[in-house]
Amino acid sequence: MGTFTENYTKMKPYNASDAIQDLQYFGEFGGVNPSISDSSTYTFLSAKTMFDTFEGNTEGCYLYSRHSSPSNLYLGEALAALEGTESANVTASGMGAITAVILQLCSSGDHLVSSRTIYGGTYAFLKNFLKRFDIAVSFVDITDPEAVAAAITDKTRMIYCESVSNPLLEVADIPTLAKLANDRGIRLVVDNTFSPLSLSPARLGAHIVVHSLTKFINGSSDAVAGAVCADSDFCLALKDVNDGAGMLLGSTLDSLRAASILKNLRTLHLRIRQHSSNAAYLAGKFREAGLRVVYPGLESHPGHQLMQRQMNPDFGFGGILTVDAGSAEKADALMEMMQRENLGYLAVSLGFYKTLFSAPGSSTSSEIPEEEQQEMGLGSGLIRFSIGLDNNIERTCERMLRCMQQLGVTSESQPAG
Ligand SMILES: *Cc1c(COP(=O)(O)O)cnc(C)c1O
């Protein structure tokens, strides 16, 4: 499985932000943004070229927008720069990316190994939906590489995990998992939705990186989209007109949305820095106040050092933290009070300019049966916070702590702020 030094000495930080900045655009009329492609289909001057394009033989020719469109290719190019991969395909949602990748790699009778703490929709797809195709899944504790290794069989096609997991914020050891996958000739697929810029899984050895663009990358909670970042061969295979899961399952992003997400991507570095520094501040203060807070940036977090070894400088430990309010009733009361006080919204999702909070046990992870939730440490009083871009986080913190004190989530004697 490789020693610590073997796995980490070759790692170099990747400056994704520079790679995005270095892209240059000259629109159709010299515009600083590429023109939006407002067509679902494309003309050919000769019938022969149309045939060749169907066969996948004509570079730069567009056929039909479910296959590709200029706007989607521009966004894909920027996301490939973000993850440092050869190529990237964009999809109509994060689930559209995840399901296409899994069905592209696994056939009936195959097996895959997955982290047991993952996004609820992905969990439901792996646990319930894949049964229809006779694809078996072993759920493991991803922080235990021995358990991952032990679960791999001759039928295993991939290891699936999240770089920082939803909602427990477990950190995956990507170089070690990549080595495990390489040794067995299988792929490591990593969902990097929680930690764009902070972590670059492909640069750490992951073969395929998936994203829900709906969250931090778009950052304005107005669009649903996803992406698959990988080598060119895999991205082309997904788009194959005969057997590509991306092409045939049809989860295509609309050009207008691709264009608006590309524009938002350009401020991702500024936003992630602010989300991270606000979350780090709150996590520290919450901990001082005696709250049960989980944040990878806290030294008390079991994955703290692992994350530090893997992460790129400058972007921090991300904008997500959790607080255990002790019971579902207290969690609900606290979230309602914080919303009344305009400290954020009681809403699922992440990466918005305002703080979003929800109780994963009864929302985004409700697909996971209750006893399994308990087993993995997902208590019913757990609140997931996606920390906003608040300019004055000290003020926000004082007001949040006041809510927590009023509801007895922290003790009265703790100083606020
Ligand atoms: C939201 C989310 C998804 C699903 O993305 P959609 O865009 O909602 O389809 C997948 N993985 C993670 C970690 C997420 O947070």
UniProtKB/TrEMBL annotation:
Gene3D superfamilies: Aspartate Aminotransferase, domain 1 (3.90.1150.10), Type I PLP-dependent aspartate aminotransferase-like (Major domain) (3.40.640.10). GO terms for molecular function: carbon-sulfur lyase activity; pyridoxal phosphate binding. InterPro entries: Cys/Met-Metab_PyrdxlP-dep_enz, PyrdxlP-dep_Trfase, PyrdxlP-dep_Trfase_major, PyrdxlP-dep_Trfase_small. Keywords: Lyase, Pyridoxal phosphate. The modification N6-(pyridoxal phosphate)lysine is found at residue 215. This is Cystathionine beta-lyase. The keyword Lyase applies. Belongs to the trans-sulfuration enzymes family. Coiled coil: none annotated. It comes from Robiginitalea biformata (strain ATCC BAA-864 / DSM 15991 / KCTC 12146 / HTCC2501). GO terms for biological process: transsulfuration. The keyword Lyase applies.
